[in-house]
Amino acid sequence: xxxxxxxxxxxxxxxxxxxxxxxxxxxxxxxxxxxxxxxxxxxxxxxxxxxxxxxxxxxxxxxxxxxxxxxxxxxxxxxxxxxxxxxxxxxxxxxxxxxxxxxxxxxxxxxxxxxxxxxxxxxxxxxxxxxxxxxxxxxxxxxxxxxxxxxxxxxxxxxxxxxxxxxxxxxxxxxxxxxxxxxxxxxxxxxxxxxxxxxxxxxxxxxxxxxxxxxxxxxxxxxxxxxxxxxx
Length: 232
Fold this sequence. Notes:
Layout: H1 9-31, E1 58-64, H2 67-74, E2 80-88, H3 97-100, E3 108-115, H4 122-133, E4 141-142, E5 145-146, E6 152-156, H5 159-175, E7 185-188, E8 192-194, H6 202-205, H7 210-226
Parallel strand pairs: 6-7
Antiparallel strand pairs: 1-3, 1-6, 2-3, 2-8, 4-5
Helix pairs in contact: 2-4, 2-7, 4-7
């Protein structure tokens, strides 16, 4: 039996070129949207709440791409007592990860932040959200993660939060510290659903994960560098 004939050199070259082009396309898709920090550390909000005279707790909910990094950033912020990764902003009851990933539920991967307003203000949390936790100019994506479930959103829980957030977005756009306009949604917080246990504190348990090293650990470095007064 004769051995199979080798494909012509031209055909083999075309196959290699096609594979190379596919790899280039994938890498470009993955990294063209890598979040970039603002041109300078962000200013303090011109409109903010005062530090509360007594210790209490309030809730803030932020969506900024994959919730692994958002949760990790806020867990290193002074005055934050608890951060939970979860789903917010959708129209389906009791969503779960695989369903949310289809983009059909309307939910965004989010972080529910319980904080002590006697130690940190809502406006200061916004500084960290916009300056460190994600790139607020990316529309329905964050780095290699693409879809409405990775959109930038602030789910305000009080009228005061809405006022502070709206004013700060306008302040940042006017300052032109980002290359593009801020794409962050500002909407009233609907129900928040906790993500599955294996998503909670994902960075803590997967420090050597390639995604964590590339996308999330640099956020903690920026938090410590740009906002040392809030880092713990």
